[in-house]
UniProtKB/TrEMBL annotation:
GO terms for molecular function: ferrous iron binding; oxidoreductase activity, acting on single donors with incorporation of molecular oxygen, incorporation of two atoms of oxygen; zinc ion binding. It comes from the Eukaryota. The lineage of its organism: Eukaryota, Viridiplantae, Chlorophyta, core chlorophytes, Trebouxiophyceae. Belongs to the DODA-type extradiol aromatic ring-opening dioxygenase family. InterPro entries: Extradiol_dOase_DODA, Xdiol_dOase_suB. This is Extradiol ring-cleavage dioxygenase class III enzyme subunit B domain-containing protein. It comes from Prototheca wickerhamii.
């Protein structure tokens, strides 16, 4: 969808935007509060439009259900402007950095490698070679803080084209990178390829205290 939007509902609805999965997933609700005040702050920093008609899609609530099962934290969701380049997404994310100083957790959910056409649901074949190459290269770039190479994923050849054939699963990573600080310690908290071509690698950026001499 063109334009960047931020949910401004006081009570965002749970959106089940997926198909062909077990009924239990469609029955799940995540009744967390929203935060119109935070939404206005995001709009102030980024120029995003306030949107009180959307809610939390599965990219948000499937993770938050495990992280905050009590659903007692306020959540706002930022949309992805499909007209922006990867570099523009990362530049927009840089404007979110002040929120971290204000106690806001910035969470980007998705997969570095996400190709449902090539999954091995049996799990017997192990990671696809091309998927492992992409996952390892991106991990190396992130740990070296070479974020420009991550954002230039479209230029890195056939492996990346296969791995990132649906960019909405990859672009949230650019927001995490863009909103990071040079003071952050970068940690890989999980590193696993499931079903051959779904990358479940997770990164955490923890700010480190400033040392004053």
């Amino acid at each position: 969808m063109p334009g960047t939007r931020v949910t401004s509902n006081a009570r965002p609805k749970t959106i089940h935007d997926f198909y062909g999965f077990p009924k239990q997933l469609y029955d799940m609700e995540y009744p967390c509060p929203g935060s119109p005040e935070l939404a206005e702050r995001v709009a102030e920093l980024t120029g995003a439009q306030l949107d009180d008609g959307w809610g939390l899609d599965h990219g948000s609530w499937t993770l938050l259900t495990h992280m905050y099962p009590a659903a007692d934290i306020p959540v706002v969701q930022l949309s992805l402007d499909t007209s922006k380049s990867p570099q523009e997404h990362m530049q927009l994310a840089q404007r979110l950095l002040p929120l971290r100083e204000e106690g806001v957790l910035i969470l980007g959910s998705g997969n570095v490698v996400h190709n449902l056409r090539t999954v091995d649901r049996s799990g017997l074949q192990g990671p696809a070679a091309w998927a492992k190459r992409v996952s390892d290269r991106v991990r190396s770039w992130i740990l070296q803080r070479d974020f420009d190479s991550v954002a230039a994923y479209e230029r890195h050849g056939a492996d990346f084209q296969t791995a990132i054939n649906s960019a909405e699963h990859f672009l949230p990573l650019l927001y995490v990178l863009g909103a990071s600080s040079p003071r952050d310690e970068v940690k890989v908290v999980s590193h696993e390829l499931q079903w051959g071509s779904l990358d479940m690698t997770s990164y955490v950026f923890n700010p480190q205290p400033v040392t004053v001499n």
